[in-house]
Amino acid sequence: MKKTKLKELLNSLTLEEKIGQLIQLSGEFYNASDISLGPQRKLGITQRMVDLSGSVLNVTGAKEIHRLQQKHLAKKGHAIPLLFMSDIVYGYKTVYPIPLGMGATWNPALVKKAYENAAEEAYAGGQQVAFAPMVDLVHDARWGRVLESTGEDPYLNSCFANAMVSGFQSGLEDGKGIVSCVKHFAAYGAVEGGREYNSADMSISNLFQNYLPSYKAAIQAGAKMVMTSLTTLNGVPATADKWLLNNILRKSWGFDGVVISDYASIYELTQHGFALNDQDAAYKALDAGVDIDMKSPCYANGLKPLLEDGRLSESKIDEATWRVLSLKNDLGLFEDPFRGSSEELENQDLLTSSKRKLARELGRESMVLLKNDNKVLPLKAHSNRKIALIGPYADEQSMLGLWAIHGDTKNTVTFKAGISEYVDTDNLVVEKGTDIIRDKDFFIHSGRDEDRVECVISDAATEKLNHDRAIAAAADADVIIFAGGEHTLQSGEAGSRTKLRLPDNQQKLLNELATLGKPIISVIISGRPLVLTDIIADSDAVIEAWFPGIEGGHALADIVFGTYNPSGRLSMSMPYVESQAPIYYNHLSTGRPQKTSQHVGRFVSRYTDAPTGPLFSFGYGLSYGSVIYHKPKIDKTSIKEGESVTLSVAVENPSKIDRTETVQLYFHDEAASVVQPVKRLINFKREIVPAEKTINVVFEVKPKMLGFYNQLGEYIVEPGKFELMVGQNSNETQAVKFYLED
Length: 742
Ligand code: BGC
What we know:
- Helices cover about 30% and strands about 20% of the residues.
- The chain is an alpha/beta fold.
- The strands form six sheets. An eight-stranded parallel β-sheet has the order 9-6-5-4-3-2-1-10. A six-stranded mixed β-sheet has the order 11-16-15-14-12-13.
- Strand 7 and strand 8 form a beta hairpin.
- It starts with a helix and ends with a strand.
- The relative contact order is 0.10.
- The site of beta-D-glucopyranose has 9 residues, from loops.
């Protein structure tokens, strides 16, 4: 529709109709037959507002979406098509590894393809907006939603934010693809103590330097929607933060798309103690720039009285409605309210073999080999060695993680299935050994009905049988693969934990397996960096597999049997012990750094009862074979504004197997007017280093890459002495120094 026509449409709408466009409800609202008992009553809104609502949350499938859209358009009045939005966080039907695993690929180009695929599937299924990517930077593994983040580094996160948004939206120009709604603006990942929905408090320079870049990258990549955060930032709820939404997002970054609240976050402004009641909350959110109210009664009931009282002007409502209508128009909904979706297209585009192939590739690139003593890995395929695959994830399909809400675990390739393709039947024994978790209270607190808990907790006799069979199988084998990890419900939204270890029953089983004296390869499923200290001690090799997606079994087997040389590198530090949280590589320099302080003994910045650093640092990961990083060289030791310095490093692979190296470039500003991190990633190159060959990796560094944000949120580059550090992870680097002249 032409803009002039759209304007005419806006002008012809009644106030109620405009408000309707600003309301988002979930599927059950459109199916409830008895409004006196239905969800409307629970939420406290009228059937009329449901009829006028503008968008729908988390309804899936072309058939259902067609049905709801047709029903909606058949209603009297302006019949503006509904927009269907949902959480397509790391895949639609083809589920990829969780974003924390995607972060470990250091391969944004491949991740972009996965988001293109997700968009193609979601488009076929009638979805129009994905509530993703979640680009919140994370430092604290206690927070369950680290699962949805690509990690702790602003530069790496920005690369992925760009890839994910461009992937989702790449089809838009041809009338395909889906809109990306980046979330959760802003700094949700900094919740204090890693406790869900808690507050975030930080300096302005920290906010600008670390937390905002990934949202900005998403906006620069063209994200057409932004979702607010459920939390407060420096005392103001993000859902009503005028400074964030207006000054930063719209004015400074030029965002002109739609802002949506997070689930009920407008209603929660009252709970925060920021608004007096629903009406006040509606005023504060709309005034700050939130266009759509997700799943709360505030806009539905509050906006009209606010206008009648003269507190709100109709032009504010018009602005928000215009943005929603424009988005619908940009998507072509007025011409085709189904946007070409159909069941036939679903049959053609969902879960295709090429999409599964990509899930396998991404799965294996996401897995991180953390330990490989005595080259226990890779195993030889179809050898005579007997393998015992033991553990609750040995043959488990629930490996998709909490936010794969459109995926079906039935489509998952289990570890057993993947490994079976490399091992003769007689040489593979698979035993569960124990349940994933045996804590009834945990399931009840997670919202599971008490009478269903037995489904996931075996009775004592079965548990004993599983245990005994596992120990006997392991005792009879030449090598043990232990597959354990977190339960799906232990991470993800509202999955904050203080104990980041394997459930006790699993750790006990692993300890017992370790007494058998056989080589043990541990494979860990998790939605966060767990504390792996005990697992490392019990195992010869450890693979962090995250929640690996539907091709998890194949991906793991490719690594175990060496058809893929592991290349994953951590994008989030792995703590040595929980109480190190928050822990991240790019922390500020202290006045008494443990390694270089002139103070000795007690009076340095460290823990007295644990190492100061993580168990595995950012960027860490092993591959098969070996590698040598030669001394880096720079072409100049001093540069001026407008010039650049070129760093080159020879990377040698003396082994007989090709490997992929992620060559990481960090820098440190030796003295600045705001204290700078000990190291900051500014670039990386993911290169194949062929067997017995040396490659030269070259980086160009320009002065503008060396700046920082001051306490006013301004980006400045200060002349002075800089260190460039290059290496295979943030902890093993070699440095060269140069000056940036005045
Ligand atoms: C989450 C969002 C999500 C929304 C809609 C909220 O609870 O915080 O990330 O997009 O629900 O499902």
